[in-house]
Inverse folding.
């Protein structure tokens, strides 16, 4: 009991501490793949500190929502990330929210972000919000379909149970699981505003989505939103790692040594996934905005196909 | 006095109030008095319904009234199902009446609204209290006609008159279908009391016919596609507090009618019953939200969302039928609980949103979102409450819309256990539709809130808006709190609905109040659990901690300046994103299939200074393929028949003679 609380506390702080490093890591790998030297790994931390110390410039006609939204976005994302197992399952607060709730918490964060984009009443904010929500109308159901596939397999929507089940002997190579993985990866790319859907490193382009919504933010508000974006990337990669590469994760009630091994395994998995993500990003070109629905629609169809196969093929527990 | 007697007395006093209202409605004090009395009566009704629901299990004895048909007494009383629905609708009615105390004072012609308002509430409560088919139908018609009068209260606009015409035609058709359904159920024996219908055994064909008639009759009132056409016309036409009642409350009475007929009276369901219900519900959900996204009139947008939410409710009902027929009683109880929970939630947040739109309408005189904007600064309380409603209806945690959708998803995840493969094939697609419509609803409410309340005012009326009165603000905030409360402690609502599933399905979910930490566990903890209170607590703690830490370490300097907008700030508010442009990507992605949307771009030749024009063409496919042919046929027939009015006396005599001969031939033929 006490251990599960300790794990939970460690997880809450760990995701917060590790998120900017992961962002730095992907930037570094990408730069190296492009034969650039790239910023140092710790650059995101420095950026955040610098932003926090800067003066905040707020548009004259912005409302209270503009100043509250960053904290709500950050809080929802942080809670969701803290409930996604990283190095150990069996989190003390894990029973409060299953995978569907985690998806919905990210939905709440997106809702507030889109509203914040509309608050100042500029055309860039509107374009970002509108496109972000359009992506979400396909990405969210695709994600839920992947969640359905996983939960039908494991007979549970709880991440800890799913992870434990995936370690068990009943799971072999399976078409539905593969489809769910592909759907989840596509959603992860889209939701984290990565190439080919969006470009996290661009400004002043009509194609930008996420950056357009936060264009009016500065100083500490921007720092909080950037941190939330890093947390979201960490969450998605941890989620994929927790479900599809479950080996090494400390199980519920395991000792300190298992937790340390889990920590190491998690770091390796994140490194691997960040490498794959960066490889993919450098190998592919940015899509036109109206090609993105096809890309996400594919994820939705794959997820649905995986679920239907499970529904028809057998009666899981 | 028993609870049923008290409730029947309340309905009677509402009718009396309706009569009293006629002379006093003109004065402001008079209308306030009537709304205040409605508030008190619906509070009494809500309390008695709750007491009946949570009290001892056996259904309360019915009140026998010597009214109505000569061979059948009128029976009124609560059982668990009607008590649950009565509690839900009277809570919403109570708050809406409180709002009306303030809002009703702004009405231009209160005498056209106030007298019908108590009659409308009385009709809805009569439907719920009825224990025989006759009083059910009387209540149903009362509800329809009173609400028709309210829709047509602003009769000067041609649009409202057309809405009222479409409404009365559809309502009459729906009531006829229900009359037929009860007639089939009563059969030759003619027992119209629900008790007698329940005792009789019905053949499968009768059950199937009743399912179909209930889908049409109750479904048209609730707004199931394709019978929804009247709803987005009629609901917005009424004054806003009445719109709230029609959309938030009256559609729930229709859902009650469906549940009563199909789950209670029609006998044991066959497995295939779930298929039409699920299909219609899924189509309703998706089309409702897509229509709403294309709509820029705030109240019509909300009305289309009612269509969507009715679809979500019927998805739960369809699942419950499938599970019940498949012998999975516990799963059926979960699906039914999710569905009725969503009924409760929708009554709260849809009333809230309509009240908010009423406040906006009163403050600016505008329903068109393209002329609004920036109201969050002029109307902060309305904006806050409306935001809560938007989050709740978008099914986002920790508000109540999410809790009921989460339960529906849990029910969907149980459906691989169904014995037949047809529903197993359909249910995942229904689940995907539900997920898709939840995301689309979030998009739609980003649009509704963002364009109306955020940004810069797009018209003079919007920049001169003012906050509404105290009663309105209070009732909107109360509804917002109820939305949050039902989302944070959904276990209490689920426990309160347990007697309903006990009555209809013979089983109940495990008591949620015994779970630790206010957690909700539909089946068992290892399978799935949700803790709204804990999620809210974590968000609050995380948000506050972040804010405090950032404030502690961050620079406190804050400067107000012109918007940055990538270096191209434009002083004109017309350059903002509009509702139309916000919905454009959705129209591109979904519109060509759903609305045959087409864009026509007219570019002037180079050198010409004429503006370029972009025209968008949208088709309401359902209206054009289903309704217009019928309307045209009726009109053509009417034209033809009309010619009979202009004949000479000789021709009339010939016609009379011919009719006489024809009748004699028929009579002779039967001899």
């Amino acid at each position: 009991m006490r251990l599960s609380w300790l794990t939970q506390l460690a997880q809450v702080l760990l995701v917060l501490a590790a998120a900017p490093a992961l962002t730095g890591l992907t930037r570094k790998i990408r730069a190296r793949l492009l034969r650039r030297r790239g910023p140092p790994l710790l650059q995101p931390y420095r950026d955040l500190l610098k932003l926090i110390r800067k003066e905040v410039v707020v548009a004259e006609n912005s409302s209270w929502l503009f100043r509250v939204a960053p904290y709500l976005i950050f809080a929802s994302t942080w809670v969701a990330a803290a409930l996604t197992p990283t190095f150990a399952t069996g989190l003390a607060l894990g029973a409060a929210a299953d995978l569907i709730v985690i998806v919905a918490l990210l939905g709440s964060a997106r809702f507030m972000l889109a509203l914040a984009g509309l608050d100042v009443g500029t055309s860039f904010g509107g374009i970002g919000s509108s496109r972000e929500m359009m992506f979400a109308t396909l990405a969210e159901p695709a994600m839920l379909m992947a969640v359905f596939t996983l939960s039908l397999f494991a007979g549970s929507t709880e991440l800890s149970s799913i992870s434990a089940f995936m370690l068990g002997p009943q799971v072999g190579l399976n078409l539905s699981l593969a489809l769910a993985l592909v759907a989840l990866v596509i959603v992860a790319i889209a939701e984290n505003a990565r190439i080919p859907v969006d470009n996290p490193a661009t400004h002043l382009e009509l194609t930008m989505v996420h950056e357009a919504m936060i264009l009016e933010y500065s100083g500490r508000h921007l720092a909080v939103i950037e941190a939330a974006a890093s947390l979201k990337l960490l969450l998605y990669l941890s989620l994929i790692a927790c479900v599809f590469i479950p080996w090494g994760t400390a199980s519920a009630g395991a000792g300190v040594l298992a937790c340390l091994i889990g920590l190491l395994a998690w770091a390796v998995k994140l490194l691997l996934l960040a490498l794959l993500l960066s490889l993919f990003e450098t190998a592919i070109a940015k899509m036109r905005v109206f090609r993105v629905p096809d890309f996400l629609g594919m994820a939705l169809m794959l997820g649905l196909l995986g679920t239907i196969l499970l529904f028809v093929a057998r009666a899981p527990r | 006095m028993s609870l049923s007697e008290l409730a029947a007395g309340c309905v009677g006093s509402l009718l009396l109030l309706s009569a009293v209202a006629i002379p006093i409605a003109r004065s402001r004090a008079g209308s306030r008095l009537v709304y205040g009395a409605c508030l008190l009566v619906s509070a009494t009704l809500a309390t008695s319904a709750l007491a009946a629901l949570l009290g001892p299990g056996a259904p309360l004895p019915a009140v026998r009234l010597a009214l109505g048909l000569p061979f059948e007494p009128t029976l009124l009383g609560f059982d668990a199902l009607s008590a649950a629905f009565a509690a839900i609708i009277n809570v919403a009615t109570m708050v809406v009446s409180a709002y009306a105390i303030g809002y009703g004072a702004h009405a231009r012609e209160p005498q056209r609204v106030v007298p019908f308002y108590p009659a409308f509430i009385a009709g809805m409560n009569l439907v719920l209290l009825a224990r025989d088919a006759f009083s059910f139908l009387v209540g149903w018609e009362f509800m329809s006609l009173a609400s028709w009068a309210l829709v047509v209260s602003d009769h000067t606009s041609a649009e409202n008159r057309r809405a009222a015409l479409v409404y009365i035609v559809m309502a009459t058709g729906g009531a006829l279908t229900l009359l037929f359904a009860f007639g089939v159920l009563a059969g030759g024996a003619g027992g119209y009391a629900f008790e007698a219908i329940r005792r009789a055994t019905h053949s499968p064909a009768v059950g199937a016919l009743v399912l179909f008639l209930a889908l049409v009759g109750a479904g048209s009132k609730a707004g199931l596609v394709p019978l929804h056409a009247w709803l987005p016309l009629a609901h917005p036409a009424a004054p806003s507090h009445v719109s709230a009642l029609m959309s938030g409350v009256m559609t729930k009475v229709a859902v009650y009618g469906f549940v009563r007929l199909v789950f209670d009276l029609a006998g044991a369901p066959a497995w295939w019953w779930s298929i039409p219900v699920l299909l219609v519900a899924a189509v309703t959900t998706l089309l409702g939200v897509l229509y709403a996204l294309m709509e820029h009139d705030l109240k019509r947008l909300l009305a289309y969302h009612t269509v969507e939410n009715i679809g979500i409710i019927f998805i739960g009902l369809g699942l419950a039928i499938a599970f019940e027929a498949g012998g999975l009683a516990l799963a059926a109880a979960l699906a039914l609980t999710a569905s009725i929970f969503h009924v409760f939630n929708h009554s709260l947040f849809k009333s809230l949103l309509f009240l908010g739109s009423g406040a906006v309408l009163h403050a600016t005189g505008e329903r068109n979102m393209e002329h609004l904007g920036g109201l969050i600064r002029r109307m902060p309380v309305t904006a806050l409450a409306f935001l809560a409603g938007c989050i709740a209806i978008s099914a986002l945690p920790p508000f109540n819309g999410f809790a009921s959708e989460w339960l529906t998803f849990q029910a969907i995840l149980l459906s691989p256990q169904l014995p037949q493969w047809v529903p197993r094939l359909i249910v995942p697609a229904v689940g995907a539709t539900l997920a898709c419509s939840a995301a689309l609803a979030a998009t739609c409410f980003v649009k509704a809130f963002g364009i109306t309340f955020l940004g810069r005012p797009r018209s003079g009326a919007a920049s001169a808006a003012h906050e509404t009165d105290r009663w309105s603000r209070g009732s909107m905030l109360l509804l917002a709190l109820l939305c949050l409360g039902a989302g944070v402690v959904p276990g209490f609502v689920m426990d309160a609905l347990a007697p309903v599933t006990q009555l209809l399905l013979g089983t109940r979910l495990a008591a949620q109040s015994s779970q630790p930490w206010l957690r909700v566990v539909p089946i068992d903890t290892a399978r799935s659990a949700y803790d709204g209170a804990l999620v809210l607590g974590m968000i609050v703690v995380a948000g506050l901690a972040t804010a405090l830490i950032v404030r502690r370490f961050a620079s406190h300097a804050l400067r107000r300046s012109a918007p940055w907008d990538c270096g191209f700030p434009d002083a004109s508010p017309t350059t903002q994103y509009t509702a139309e442009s916000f919905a454009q990507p959705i129209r591109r992605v979904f519109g060509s299939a759903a609305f045959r949307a087409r864009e026509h771009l007219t570019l002037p030749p180079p050198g010409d200074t004429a503006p370029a024009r972009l025209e968008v063409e949208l088709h309401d496919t359902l209206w054009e393929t289903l309704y217009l042919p019928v309307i045209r046929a009726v009109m053509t027939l009417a034209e033809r028949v009309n010619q009979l009015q202009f004949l000479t006396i000789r021709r009339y005599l010939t016609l009379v003679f011919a009719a006489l001969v024809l009748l004699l031939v028929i009579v002779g033929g039967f001899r």
In short: The radius of gyration of chain A is 19 Å. The beta strands of chain A are 56-59. The longest strand of chain A covers residues 56-59. The longest helix of chain A spans residues 2-33.
